């Protein structure tokens, strides 16, 4: 999983994303999907990594904590080269969106242009544990609506890459987003993905333009019940954990 050509291929696919369209979709709908960022071979390789305990720092069984049903593992540093390449290549495209959102919500401070600089800020604040993870769902498993907050420093955007092939490897298991606006009913969205594609979405909230300026809406994400098979996903979060 550490061959440099794989990392170069992943970075090239990130460059091929229409980031202007992605920014527009995030503003309008609260999420954006991408072309395949990983090949089928890379997806299978990352899914098979799940059984290699030395690659991970911790394992979470969801039902033990009331998170749903299924499990996930947090990768340890150094990350597999292809995941590190994705994380490094995607961050500079998302940082301008994150800073614009902060301005709209009248929040202080701005995110630096590179992931390395941002992670230095995280580590200085005591958030030193890596947060990229691989999730595994089997028949009947699901993930309750939640937010991925690991400390006071939060980068407001993250992404999930589907490692399995919908329809072939599993059925059900749809990615879910729910938006809660003040004094309004919640709005849900099902985001279909193909193997290797990613969905980019807010970690905890996003700005929405109202008649009196921008206001904050709360976002949560989850996964519907898997009807059959096995589903693996890669989660890429940019802030490290305390």
Rg over alpha carbons: 17 Å
Helix content: 25-40%
Strand and helix order: HHEHEHEEHHEEEEEEEEEE
Structural class: alpha+beta
Under CATH at level 1, the class stands as Mainly Beta
| CATH level-3 fold name | Jelly Rolls
Q: Could you name the ranges where pLDDT drops below 50 across 5 or more consecutive residues?
A: none
Q: What summary fits the major beta sheet?
A: 8 strands, antiparallel
Task: Count up the helices.
Answer: 6
What gross morphology would you assign? Answer: globular
Total beta strands: 14
**What's the end-to-end separation, in Å?**
27 Å
Strand content bin? 25-35%
Task: Describe this protein's structure.
Helices cover 29% and strands 33% of the residues. Helix 1 runs parallel beside helix 5. The strands form two sheets. Strands 1, 2, 4, 5, 7, 8, 11 and 14 form an eight-stranded antiparallel β-sheet that branches. Strands 3, 6, 9, 10, 12 and 13 form a six-stranded antiparallel β-sheet that branches. The chain has 242 residues and is of the alpha+beta class. The mean pLDDT is 94. It is globular. Strand 9 (175-180) and strand 10 (187-191) form a beta hairpin. It has one domain (4-236): Sandwich (Jelly Rolls).
């Amino acid at each position: 999983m550490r061959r440099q050509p794989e990392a170069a291929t992943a970075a090239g696919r990130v460059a091929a994303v229409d980031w202007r369209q992605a920014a527009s979709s995030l503003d309008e709908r609260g999420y954006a999907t991408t072309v395949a960022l990983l090949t089928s071979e890379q997806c299978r390789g990352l899914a098979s990594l799940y059984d290699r305990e030395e690659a991970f720092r911790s394992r979470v069984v969801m039902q033990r904590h009331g998170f749903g049903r299924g499990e996930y593992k947090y990768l340890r540093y150094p990350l597999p080269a292809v995941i590190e390449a994705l994380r490094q290549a995607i961050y500079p495209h998302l940082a301008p969106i994150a800073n614009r959102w902060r301005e709209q919500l009248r929040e202080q401070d701005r995110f630096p242009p590179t992931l390395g600089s941002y992670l230095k800020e995280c580590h200085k604040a005591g958030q030193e544990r890596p947060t990229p993870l691989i999730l595994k769902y089997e028949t009947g498993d699901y993930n309750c609506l939640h937010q991925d907050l690991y400390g006071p420093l939060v980068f407001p955007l993250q992404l999930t890459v589907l490692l399995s092939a919908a329809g072939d490897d599993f059925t059900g298991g749809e990615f879910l987003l729910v938006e809660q606006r003040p004094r309004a009913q919640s709005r849900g969205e099902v985001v279909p993905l193909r193997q290797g594609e990613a969905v980019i979405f807010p970690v905890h909230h996003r700005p929405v333009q109202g008649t009196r300026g921008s206001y904050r809406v709360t976002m949560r994400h989850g996964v519907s019940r898997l009807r059959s098979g096995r589903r693996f996903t890669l989660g890429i979060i940019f802030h490290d954990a305390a």
